[in-house]
User: What shape does this take?
Amino acid sequence: MKKTHTIFFLLAAVAATLFSSPEFFIAKIFIDKIEKEYGVFAKRRAFALVQMMNEARDLDDMGKMEKVNDFFNQTPYSPDKVTWGVSDYWATRLEFIGRDKADCEDYVIAKYFTLKELGVPTSKLYMTYAKSLRYKTAHMVLTYYETPKSVPLVMDNYNYKILPASVRDDLVPIYSFKGDELFNAKQAQIGKMVPAAARQTRPWDELIITQKKD
Amino acid sequence: MSLFKQLAIMLTLFLAIILTSVMVLNFKTASEFIQNQLYTDAKNTAHSLGLSLSKVADPNDTSTMDTMINAIFDSGYYERIVLKDLDGKILYERKTDLKVHDVPQWFIDNVVIHNANASTDIMMGWSRFGSLEVSGHTGNAYRQLYLTFMDLLKTFVGIGAVVFGVLYLILSVSLQSLKRIRAQAHAIIDNQFIFEDKIPFTTEFRSVTVAMNAMVAKVKDIFDRENETLRRYHELLYIDSETKLHNRRYLVATLPDCLALSSGTYVMFSFDDIDRLKKEHGYEQYMKVITYFAKIFNQTFEKHPMTLIARLNESDFFAVVPNVETNEIHDRLSIVMDEMQLMVKNSDEGIGDDVTLGCAIGKYGDYDNAKSLFSRADHVVTQAKMEENFTVKLCSECDEGMILGREEWRHELMCSLEESRILLASQPVIQLYDGQQKILHEEIFLRYKDKEGTVHNASFFIPMATNLGIVDVFDRYMIEKVLERLSNGSIRTSAALNLSADFVKKYDNAEWLKGQLEIFHRAHKTVLWFEVSNIIALHDLEAVRSICMMVKSFGYQFGIDHFVLPASGAAYLQIIRPDYVKSNSAYLKDILGDRQSGEARESLMNVVTSLGISMIAIAVEDSEEIVHFSEHGIDRLQGSAIAPVSLL
Assistant: This one.
């Protein structure tokens, strides 16, 4: 019986190795860059992000969303005016990790790119403009549609739990965009991209996290 | 192809490629911009309309949505707006066809505008309702692109024209010097000595011009030196040092040509015992008498430039006046005698008794040779001296011509033309080549057949025709007949045609000949040879030069017949630049046989070859002469030793 259990565990370990996703890592050059620009704590946060991604890489969509949502929601909220000195600034994931401060769009961006890298289909991910009834402010959340017709799950930085939109009475949806589409529009707005052109020049995902090739 | 053309083509191509490329790139940029603009507009509309539709989205009643779509579609410029549900089913659609009135169809057919759809999602609360697709209208894009295209085209055509014009000017200016270099190069090939004074600005061209100038200077120097040597030799050999008239040697060398060509009058003056004058009255008195006589003797024939005048020996003077009747000269000779008599009489030294002068005048013709003419003249002048001092005696024994008056001659000659009694004869000119004889051309001669059927040489009637001013009629007749025969194949080789002085002088004749040659040249490849006699070349230099240029322009050959180097040197050959000269064998033998220095022979050949002229020996009488000439490098020959003149 004991022998049977040993064989079972060994096979399970081999299967896990064979069928699991490749491991994420950050090249040394980027680690050095993060340390140089934002300091040693930022470097640790980057390592923590990679560690989180590696833990989440073989989970289902829900598992991945929970991991990612929890990870980024640890970062304290700070308005753009305070963090960046301007009324509206969309930070990249690198800037997010580096500064360790963010506002609602920054959470959405960081979560979106991380989930995208973890293999969650972008067709299911929407960036939704909403009104926060509690704070009476314009807000943005990342929504996940299991199917096109299903009620979306909301990833929010006000309420850390991932809940169906139907129970989020504190939010009034305004309009939703596909993730990449909205980035491109924003890119054009800040003058870094010719409107409608497919070439994106601002590295939204400049924190390059790659997967090892097997 | 000239360098100018090559550069012009190259630069035009280059310019065309640059301008076309820039135009295509500009057009492409404009096209991309317009397409992006089209997409951005569509996208903006899609988002704003999508946001508006999200507020009224109702799957059970889309009428409000339809109305909103209508309002946007009708008030804007769109090709298509479609509302779809989540399954892709079309809920509502508005579209319009592409119609653009002010853009040509070819433009629409050839320019592709990618009209990308802008799509957005319609939300219904947190749920998705469907999607909206918006396509902007390409008509406006086509209109904008077409206007841009036309503007670009006009601008670039304008720029192209201006640049090409400027380019043409710059090339013309900078290649001007090349044209002069080309002209100089052509002149060198043509043995002309043109010195280019304008040294080009461009370094490479400058080097070429300087080099060619140096070469031209060298060749010209050689020519000048040889010409001077030849002229000095000529003076030494053929000029009488006391009177500066030609000497007996010259007369003997050139008389055969003169006799063969013409009939006319000869004149001989003879002093009796001139040595006695020298001994008794001294050299000064002797020279006074002799130079005075030489002067008035020379002046007597000024009107007849073709006259051959020579001093045969200390006491005898001879003149051959071609194509002139004795009675035209007789009176003038009496005046010479009167002037001499007066001079002797008025002399302070009393030389009257020691000067005895007689004169003979008579006719010569093609029946004469130098020997017979001299002996006849000698006989008559002796009789003259015996009769009375200062007598002019007319020799009447040799008069074999037809006894006809001027008008009768005119009538007879014109009749002979009409009745085809002017015949063509020819004699081949050959070139020796590896022991073989190759015919260069047949020289054409005219023959006159009188009413009795006797055929006479040209010298029988040409002097009279010249006198009557109708000799060019015979030239035209000969040219027409020869061209006709060459055309119909009855003459198979090249033909050489002699042109008379009257023919050359008249501009009408040159124009007529040009017309004839233009017709002949178009139809036949046969090379024609034209020649004029040396005396014509000397006296009508400009007319001969222009006719020579005209003949050469057809690729035909031009030559000088009966060439004898004149006292003035060979400069006239440099001006006319004939292809060949024909010299009488008597003259050539005299020059080639110069054993004293050999310089004359060298100089003659150097002068002739430096101008690219070939030498033909004529009147070659025997095989010894053939050998003699070929030993001296003259391999082109004509004469009875080769083949006699025969009727065609």
Notes: The first helix of chain B runs from residue 3 to 56. Chain B touches chain A through 16 residues (CB under 8 Å). The two ends of chain B are 46 Å apart (CA to CA). Chain B has a mean pLDDT of 85.
